[in-house]
Amino acid sequence: MSDPADWTALEALAALRSGALDSASYVEALLARAGEWQDLNAFVGLDAARARAAALAADRRRRSGSPPGALDGLPIVIKDNVDVQGWVTTAGTPALRAYRPARSATVAARLLGAGALLLAKNTMHELAHGITSNNAAWGPVRNPYDRERIPGGSSGGTAAAIAARLAPAGLGTDTGGSVRIPAALCGIVGFRPTTGRYPGDGIVPISRTRDTAGPLARSVADLALLDAVLAGAAPVPLEHIELAGLRVGVPRRLYYETLDPELRRLTEAALAELARAGVVLVEGDIEGLDGVSARLAGTISDYEFPRDLARYLAASGSGITLEDVIAELASPDLKETFAADVQGPNAPTEASYRHAIEVGRPALQAAFRDYFARHALVAFAVPTTPLPASPIGADAAVELDGIRVPTFITYLRNARPATTVGLPALSLPIGRTAAGLPVGLELDAPAGADRRLLALSLALERLFEPLPPPRR
Question: Is residue 154 annotated as a catalytic residue, yes or no?
Answer without folding.
Answer: yes
